[in-house]
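Input sequence (156 aa), recorded before submission:
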Amino acid sequence: MIVRIATSSDSGDMASLLNEVIAAGGTTAHETPMTASVVREHFVDGRDVLSSVVAVDGDAIIGWQSVGWWDHDPHIGTFVRPGLQAKGVGAALFAATLERLRTCDIDRIIAWIRADNAPGLTYYARIGFRDIGGDPGFALSDGTIVGRIHRRFDLV
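Predicted structure, token format:
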């Protein structure tokens, strides 16, 4: 596995992986599949993107992580191919993300994680994010209340 900066040509594979995660359910608040152009704008090289990295095994993107401005804060999103979680992909992505963000003028990263996403909560805690609040009433589009935990990682 190698981790590198994401490029616009990665957007299609990144969208496919994200859509696989969405279809599996339970680990992302995203519910609607995204096109390559939407992923590119929001997570790869749009004006609000601060960092975007991919983990590649052979020719396949097996994970990606992006940090971008949203709701006045730098928010992180991490997506790893189902079945490959908890195998070091996320840790490798975060190491690359930190390296890229240290050159940016930001002091924090925010993660909003579904409260029922046990793997995501474990991951963000393991890499050093701490709880700063939440939204217990956060609901999916069908009305199912899943809650959301807000976490922060300080860069300074």
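Checked by second reader. Strands lie at 2-5, 49-57, 60-70, 73-80, 108-114, 130-135, 148-154.
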